[in-house]
Amino acid sequence: MVFSHRMAALAAVVVIPLGIAATSYALTDSPESPKVPPKVELESGSPSATPTSTASPTPTPTPSDEVVSRPPVSDDDDDDDGPGDDG
């Protein structure tokens, strides 16, 4: 009696995953191979590069007169536990 319970448990351990894998394989779709068009055409109305003219160069943006100072540098991160760390 004990032998049959062990065989049933072993069969369940083997058969159930195999059944799931077989069902999953049977239900998957096989993808079609990609179809490549015979000729690729670009749009004819695509924007082209504007010709450069020496008569009117594009103006460069002028920086503002306000000078902003850099924020003070501080070591507030507590996530590094390297040498020289007080924490």
From TrEMBL:
It comes from Streptomyces phaeochromogenes. Residues 27-87 are annotated as: Disordered. Keywords: Signal. Residues 74-87 have a biased composition (Acidic residues). Residues 44-72 have a biased composition (Low complexity). Residues 1-26 form the signal peptide. It comes from the Bacteria. This is Small secreted hydrophilic protein.
